[in-house]
Amino acid sequence: MPVVSTALGALVLGEQLTVRAVVGAAVVLAGVFLVKHRPKPRTAVPLLTD
Question: Fewer beta carbons within 10 angstroms: which end of the chain, N or C?
Answer without folding.
Answer: C
